[in-house]
């Protein structure tokens, strides 16, 4: 029944869901969704770990030619570097992705895994219209954030919305300065950054991603 699904959203946040059930979904159902255009998975405040998230991220590549919107909300989960490396591999194959929302607040994310994500964005950087990133309370530092600014920010020509959450981290001026120096501000309609304090601005209507 999953063959013709083009939009899928699952919210199991703050539930007792375990890796066992999610692994079944990742290995049996997801590989059949070859026509996916929009995928959203919310599992905030659960005990999900790399054992189920890694195959889930890996098998998202089944829709590599169709997927345009990807939303992953995994704050306060047990996601670690292995899962993010699998996600980076999949992202590098999504040539037509336009909207990426990735929330990893209060997880064990570090600079090394974040840098692998930046490299994967290069495959669809020119098509990207909306980029939302949540790293509140993680181990991400200036080193991880600055690479986003120096390597690909200037090439995201279609970007209209940008959100970055780095509250309660060691990110400071050295990480954020190259990002804002290189972002193409002419087309951005929504810009948000959390801590250090910044008064975000918006003009026009947010996209319905």
Count of discrete domains: 1
CATH 2nd-level architecture? Alpha-Beta Horseshoe
Number of helices: 6
CATH homologous superfamily caption:
Ribonuclease Inhibitor
Write the CATH fold name: Leucine-rich repeat, LRR (right-handed beta-alpha superhelix)
Estimated structural class? alpha/beta
Largest sheet, strands/sense/barrel: 8 strands, mixed
Q: What is the average per-residue confidence, as pLDDT, rounded to a whole number?
A: 87
Low-confidence residue ranges: 195-209
Order of helices and strands: EHEHEHEHEHEHEE
Q: At the first level of CATH, what is the class?
A: Alpha Beta
Entry summary:
The chain is an alpha/beta fold and 209 residues long. 31% of the residues lie in helices and 18% in strands. It has one domain (7-13, 21-199): Ribonuclease Inhibitor (Leucine-rich repeat, LRR (right-handed beta-alpha superhelix)).
Fold topology:
Layout: E1 7-11, H1 19-29, E2 38-42, H2 50-59, E3 69-73, H3 81-91, E4 99-103, H4 111-121, E5 130-134, H5 142-152, E6 161-165, H6 173-182, E7 190-194, E8 201-202
Helix pairs in contact: 1-2, 2-3, 3-4, 4-5, 5-6
């Amino acid at each position: 029944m999953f063959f013709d699904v083009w939009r899928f959203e699952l919210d199991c946040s703050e539930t007792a869901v375990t890796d066992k059930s999610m692994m079944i979904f990742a290995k049996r159902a997801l590989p059949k969704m070859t026509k996916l255009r929009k995928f959203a998975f919310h599992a905030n405040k659960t005990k999900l770990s790399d054992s189920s998230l890694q195959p889930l991220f890996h098998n998202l590549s089944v829709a590599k030619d169709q997927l345009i919107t990807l939303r992953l909300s995994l704050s306060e989960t047990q996601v670690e570097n292995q899962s993010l490396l699998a996600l980076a591999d999949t992202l590098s194959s999504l040539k037509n992705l336009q909207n990426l929302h990735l929330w990893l607040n209060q997880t064990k994310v570090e600079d090394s895994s974040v840098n692998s994500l930046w490299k994967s964005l290069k495959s669809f950087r020119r098509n990207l219209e909306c980029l939302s990133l949540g790293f509140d309370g993680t181990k991400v530092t200036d080193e991880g954030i600055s690479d986003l600014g120096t390597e690909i920010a200037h090439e995201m020509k279609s970007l209209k919305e940008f959100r970055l959450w780095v509250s309660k981290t060691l990110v400071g001026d050295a990480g954020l300065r190259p990002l804002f120096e290189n972002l193409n501000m002419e087309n951005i309609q929504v810009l948000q950054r959390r801590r250090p304090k910044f008064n975000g601005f918006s003009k026009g209507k947010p996209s319905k991603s």
